[in-house]
Amino acid sequence: QVQLVESGGGVVQPGRSLRLSCAASGFTFISYPMHWVRQTPGRGLEWVALISYDGRNTYYADSVKGRFTISRDDSKSTLYLQMNSLRPEDTALYYCARGGSWFGEFHHWGQGILVTVSS
Amino acid sequence: QSVLTQSPSVSAAPGQKVTISCSGSSSNIGKNYVSWYQQLPGTAPKFLIYEDKKRPSGIPDRFSGSRSGTSATLDITGLQTGDEAHYYCGVWDSSLNVVVFGGGTKLTVL
Q: Does B76 contact chain A (CB < 8 Å)?
């Protein structure tokens, strides 16, 4: 079965960096686009970034553009999110999600990893 | 402020039907397929509906979706207490080149 396991979260000071990882299994990783989505406790879902199945195209929410970078290592079936210049408003539960035929689909979700930006 | 508009909450009795709406614009719902997600308390979202009305395997036919113009709806029939959750719509916005979500609708089964 499809499994997505996030790691790399934690507490970080404003302005610092953090890299999230998402280990994927149970499907052919290279065939699917992948996303990061975040959720502030008690709030709704906010899409963060998308990388195409071949890694050639990436898209970002305006709130993270220029600070976050999504990437993938197909040899390791792993998705990454490099987060730089972190702000308190980046505090959230970050989900890795597997995409589908269309960019707006999220077929499978990880359990989420908490990132807290605080001094 | 979400790009897609959903009612914050809806409620109905067990066995009844409820409709959750999602309103957008010509650049998102008016142009692209809508998907829906169910988020039970304390869990990750679950894929519920894709391409407006298709159900992934394992999703009961009590859940159905539709899209018309710049709006989409999720219908849930035969409500069960286990359906109590937040429901989110999502779609690609072709003008912004981003995925947009609705703010979510909290379903209470009375």
A: no
Which tens digit of pLDDT belongs to each residue from A9-32? 999 999 999 999 999 999 999 999
Residue of B nearest to A103 (CA): B92
The rounded distance, in Å, linking the Cα atoms of B27 and A21 is 32
Nearest to B44 by CA among A104, A18, A114, A11: A114
Position B31, amino acid: K
- The one-character DSSP state at B23 is E
Which of A106, A107, A111, A113 is most worth mutating to test chain B (most B CB atoms within 10 A of its CB)? A106
CB B7 within 8 A of CB B105: yes
Q: What is the pLDDT of residue B1?
A: 72
- In angstroms, the CA A37 to CA A14 distance is 20
Q: Please answer yes or no on whether A102 and B100 come within 8 Å at the CB atom.
A: no
